[in-house]
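Reminder to self: tokens first, then the designed residues, so the page reads top to bottom the way the pipeline ran.
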């Protein structure tokens, strides 16, 4: 699959990310999959932060990065250019499992900040588009953001490259 346009295009939306290495890892993943990384709202760090660059390595300069003032501004952007493509909210608080979704070839995956996740109001507003990644142990509260991003993105890719 090297050097060819994939049969899908995905957008990863990080809402107010707080931990630079998670954002750097998501950016690196976007380069690997030819996906677009969106930062919605103000991150808790500078995107020039050395930890972002360290996690993104020398790939950071290749990230298709888009900035939006807020989730609502991202939503306007999405509606204007991708209105027919769905977006999915990912949260441990969502009732439905990621494993029950058939992902299309173009979609956006929205993730909340590391400490709080997505606001309940957003999950309520988009309940039909909200999913969780199943966890099978009560011993942890949540998955690491960059791991969650990877799981969701590669599940969508797996479904669309068979």
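Designed residues (162 positions):
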């Amino acid at each position: 699959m090297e050097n060819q346009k994939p049969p899908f295009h995905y957008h990863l939306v990080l809402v107010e990310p707080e931990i630079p290495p998670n954002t750097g890892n998501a950016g690196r993943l976007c380069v690997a999959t030819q996906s677009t990384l969106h930062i919605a709202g103000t991150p808790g760090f500078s995107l020039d932060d050395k930890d972002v660059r360290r996690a993104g390595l020398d790939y950071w300069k290749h990230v298709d990065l888009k900035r939006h003032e807020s989730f609502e501004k991202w939503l306007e952007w999405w509606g204007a250019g991708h209105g027919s493509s769905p977006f999915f909210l990912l949260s441990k608080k969502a009732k439905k499992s990621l494993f029950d979704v058939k992902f299309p070839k173009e979609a956006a995956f929205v993730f909340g900040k590391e400490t709080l996740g997505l606001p309940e109001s957003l999950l309520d507003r988009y309940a039909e588009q909200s999913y969780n990644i199943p966890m099978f142990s009560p011993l942890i509260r949540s998955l690491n953001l960059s791991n969650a991003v990877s799981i969701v993105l590669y599940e969508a890719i797996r479904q669309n490259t068979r």
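The chain has one domain: 9-160.
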